[in-house]
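Reopening this one. Same input as before:
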Amino acid sequence: MMFLEQKYHLMFCFFLALLPFASVGQSHKNISLGSSHTAQAGNSTWAVSPSGNFAVGFQQIEENGFLLSIWFNQIPERTIVWSANGGNLAPKGSKVELTSDGFFLLNDPTGNRIWSAGSSGSGTSHAAMVDTGNFVLASQSTEYLWQSFDHPTDTILPGQVLNQPSTLVSRYLETNYSSGRFKFILKDDGNLALYTTQYPWSSSNFNYWSTHTSGSDFSLVFNQSGVLFLRANNGSIISMISSKTASTQDFYQRAVLEYDGVFRHYAYPKSSNSNTRSWKMAWSTVYYLPPNICLDIREDYGSGACGFNSYCTFDDGKKSCHCPSGYSFIDPADVMKGCRPDFDSQSCDGSSPETDLFDFYEMENTDWPLTDYEYFEQANEDWCRQDCLSDCFCALAIFRDAGCWKKKLPFSNGRKDPSFQAKALLKIRKDNSTSKCEGPVRKKDQSKLIIVISVLLSSSVLMNLLLLVAGFSVVYWWRSKSSKANQPSQSIVGTCLRSFTFEELRKATNGFEEVLGQGAFSTVYKGVSFDPTWSHIAVKKLNNMVKENEEEFKTEVSTFGRTNHRNLIQLLGFCNEGDHRMLVYEFMSKGSLASFLFDTTERPSWFQRMQIALETARGILYLHEECSTQIIHCDIKPQNVLLDESFTAKISDFGLAKLLKIGQSRTNTGIRGTKGYVAPEWFRNMPITIKVDVYSYGVLLLEIICCRRSFEANAENENQMVLTDWAYDCFHERKLDLLVKDDKEALADMKMVEKYVMLSLWCIQEDPLLRPSMKKILQMLEGSIDVPAPPDLPSLITTISL
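Same output, byte for byte:
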């Protein structure tokens, strides 16, 4: 059966391969010989394709730097798909010209050549911007004598074919179009592969993904059906690259080797119609490779997926680079340059080992492979720590399976992933603050200031003494005033969040005028952002500073100081001044999931709801398994899942969260959470584990599926009042269609409805041991593992391993 499916799949793909590609017969508007175009302030268009989908001209990249490029012309992003001079931007006044003898030239204002294409006497009669995104120099008979499709930069478009040998080169940064650190090469031997480069040289370094094919006359094809594949000269498909299709009639598409080294296939809806209404009006990833670049790059020479001394994490197709504690980025604008220590390394002069000045920062599930200089078998962790501490060359030790690996600076191939059963022991100086937050003036700076003043005005010993006393008094007064006005309390020092004054937030919210939401102990206001990155902010003001509110404030600030994930709302800062306690968040323009599900007349799309369920699960998984400190949220519910402009789900409100110590898997605490979402063990005086969040997520998942609240007093009958009970009855009576009544999209996808309902029933099992982990839940949602049938009764004991 599987063989037949593969056979039909290949036949289908072969049929797709026969669909037409770019040809000389395509319609276009001609650019005549002698035409030119000048780079002016802003973005300026030279020519547009007949459909208006693509344009060629100048885009302004820097204040006086212009890029001759091709871009998507009918979407706000004006996404660039090809460029001529990425490594040598043209100044204002530069001119692109199709000369009378057929040259395609780009000259600066003084006439110096920046870039050129074509050749004299080639027979070029005109140039054109074609509807496929191909810019061509053509003869009188419309034969293409030169085309941008034959000289790609980092992007391939539907209708484009790359023959052997061909190369895509990533940009250096998102807004820097010079050649970067990664290549996508169709080699002469027939292998299609992704490589790191020996940057700043362009030579290939490490192969981190490949089709493992060989042969001649191969082509990489991106056909008009949105399929990428490797094709032989006889038309047979050698290897599928991206078989997830999206109609080019409904979607703009591109495949890009991004500056982060990931090759991504994107789609963008051309309009909001019935075929695209479940998509965001933005570039969405259809497919990407490799599956996890952090794990796939493991090179002997070079820094790895991120820069030296940094480590890589990969989530939802996005690569992130981080500095470990005690280190900071050399250049925050270019994280691939790596991290540097923020402290003086251990001395090796022999006079003192300085072992009392250093300690270790533990990092679970983290490794920097291939940079070891010593390895010891059958060692315990304490011995590994002591040996690294007494070795002045040792900057890092990895302990795993009774093995101890010692490493010098710089570290390479850093990665953090739950699959690693290893612990990184990072040696840092004890007196070095692992937080990058600093007070207004450091002691060293104050001392220097006083000494300078004293030296400059030292007319006499008495004058010196008076000036010193006055200097110390001024500094002491200034520090006291600054501390009272701006500094956070001791319980939240070191969070690296901005400390706002009450007056700043009062002005930002126009006197706390616009209310976004209100709870029993706090009110959230809309404000104007202090940072151009954010247009608006949300300010959560705690109303009455009772003991519970004080603890909630401290918990939320300290918890957010430990988190960094795209599915968690970003805390930007706080106010801890006098009796005022406020938290400043990124503004979520689409409001809460509760409003999205329950307060709208039109039911949200099935696809959007499932995407939100998936993103919420990713956020909880991060808290449970991927954060440096394991966190139990304790209050997962629709009101605490917020949606941004693109309907991306972000978990919020960590006021009730519980942090677990290293090695701790359970804790005893009073009941926390919201009625209807609280796991049964809260009421049984049992130790609390991360499985309480799993229970709450199960209730939330049912609400997302059914678009109704967990309790409806006005339900059609009393059996439907409690959603969990009703869902359980519907599943066992094989009446799941009742849960999604009048939801045409869900009714057309009942297999998926059944899968999600089964998963939610696993999550709300009374016995916490029967509930799956968030990692298993995410795997089931993504389809990598099947969802087994839940027990017949809530209390049934099963041996299934979840």
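So the earlier flakiness isn't reproducible anymore. For the record, The chain has a mean pLDDT of 81.
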